Amino acid sequence: MSAAHRQRLQGLPGFYAVVMRTAVQTQFQYRAQNYLYMLGMIAEPVIYLAVWSAVAREQGGAVEGVTPGDFAAYYIVWTLVRNMNIVFTPYGWEERIRQGEFSGQLLRPVHPLHYDLAYFAGWKFVVIVLWLPIAAVLSLVFRPTLTVSAQEVLVFVIAIWGAYLIRSLLLEALGMISFWTTRVTALYQLFFTAELLLSGRLLPLALLPGWAQRIAEWSPFPSTFGFPIEALVGDLGTRELWTGVGLQLVWVVVGAGLAGLVCRFGVRRYSAVGN
């Protein structure tokens, strides 16, 4: 490792601190806009909640042991996990490369990936603060069934940040495929569809058919949605909780390796399409 590279690594904590602080200050200036955005996202989980609650009542009060109160807890926590999963998308990389913005970013001492991770991480602190009153209102309306322990809260806090890192790294890697093609829409839509079906976003993973659960187990998707939610609202034992965290760590390493590999080979053939 060269001295210059070591110096850059030593400077990363300070870089992350500055960019995250900037993001917090910037996003708090747009509190109303952030609130409207978050309120707009409530429609999706409320629809899921209404549908599954109705199904539970028709089946005698539960679906595979999940009651309306359990569904309420799941989808209220879902709203925070969903907001934690808003990251820099492949469309952003597509624009960077097509418009030539990446040329200037190559001159900076820190890779754009670090800026994306730091800025969106700072934004998440604003999201968490703004989410608390939304969760309180949803809890009053839908009356979730939720009993948590200190260990579950700890794992949940770790898991939502693990989910953020996994999804960030995978979508950054997907976005950098724009080095080879100017359109990543089809690949992103394929990713999104698989995520929707296998992550726990559409419905709790326990309600999936057995074959779908087995496929999901070999994918990163449960680590970004289902596990963080279940860590708080599910009845997971100590071993299951920390095994889930360990699996998240594995996917973080895989995502980082994949993003680094794609970037390494992609930069070699980089050429801007725009001005």
How are the SSEs ordered, and which strands pair?
Blueprint: H1 3-28, H2 31-40, H3 43-58, H4 68-84, H5 90-99, H6 101-105, H7 112-142, H8 150-175, H9 185-198, H10 210-217, H11 221-224, H12 226-233, H13 238-268
Description of the molecule:
With 275 residues, this protein is mainly α. It has helices at 3-28, 31-40, 43-58, 68-84, 90-99, 101-105, 112-142, 150-175, 185-198, 210-217, 221-224, 226-233, 238-268.
Which key phrases capture this entry?
globular; mainly alpha
What is the overall silhouette? globular
Strand content: under 5%
Low-confidence runs (pLDDT<50, min 5 residues)?
A: none
Helical percent range?
Answer: over 70%
Number of strands: 0
Major beta sheet, specifics?
none
Query: Overall pLDDT, averaged?
Result: 85
Number of helices: 13
Head-to-tail CA distance between termini: 35 Å
Report the radius of gyration as a whole number of Å.
20 Å
Structural class: mainly alpha
**Element-level helix/strand string:** HHHHHHHHHHHHH
Summarize this entry quickly.
With 275 residues, the chain is mainly α. Helix content is 75%, strand content 0%.
